[in-house]
Amino acid sequence: MSFTKERKAFGTTVFQMQNTKFTLAELAARLQVGWAHLDWALKRHMAGELNTAEASAAKLWHTEMQNDVCDAALQLHGGAGYMNEYPIARLWRDARVTRIFGGTSEIMKEVISRSL
Ligand SMILES: Cc1cc2nc3c(=O)[nH]c(=O)nc-3n(C[C@H](O)[C@H](O)[C@H](O)COP(=O)(O)OP(=O)(O)OC[C@H]3O[C@@H](n4cnc5c(N)ncnc54)[C@H](O)[C@@H]3O)c2cc1C
């Protein structure tokens, strides 16, 4: 977010553009819901109640969201987002593998589908 408040384009800051504010608002809302779900899953895990399908759903949903969030944030950086000088470049790159390791998103869906 700080980058968009500093970066100027078309006589204003990137943050002031409606698309940027809507994108950031959507990400904030998704993160808010995501944290609530993560707390729910952790609480069930600590109590020994989290089942395989629920854990797979959590892995699937949170890693996909991590990728969505990092990708949208990178886009708001423009070309700077692709440069290693900016932390978002590393965050975006690191996010990509989370849909693969620990079980791919496709396998998470396969596991969830077995409980349906
Ligand atoms: C950085 C990194 C660190 C890792 N660390 C570890 C580790 O510490 N310990 C460990 O054991 N492993 C580790 N792995 C391995 C990782 O768990 C596997 O890469 C991952 O489970 C996917 O397996 P695979 O690479 O054999 O892909 P494949 O099984 O060859 O899958 C290829 C593609 O086919 C899809 N696919 C496969 N089966 C199905 C299916 N039944 N239905 C639909 N789609 C399917 C996959 O989703 C994927 O898109 C690591 C991988 C990476 C990249």
Structural class estimated from helices and strands: mainly alpha
Strand fraction band? Answer: under 5%
Report the biggest beta sheet as strand number plus sense, adding barrel if it closes: 2 strands, antiparallel
Give the termini distance in whole angstroms: 40 Å
Q: What would you call the quaternary organization?
A: single chain
The CATH architecture comes to Up-down Bundle
Give the strand order, joined by hyphens, for the main sheet: 1-2
Low-confidence stretches are none
- Total domains: 1
Relevant terms:
116 residues, mainly alpha, Butyryl-CoA Dehydrogenase, subunit A, domain 3, two-stranded antiparallel sheet, 2 strands, 68% helix, 3% strand, elongated, binds flavin-adenine dinucleotide, AcylCo_DH/oxidase_C, acyl-CoA dehydrogenase activity, flavoprotein, oxidoreductase, Acyl-CoA_dehydrogenase
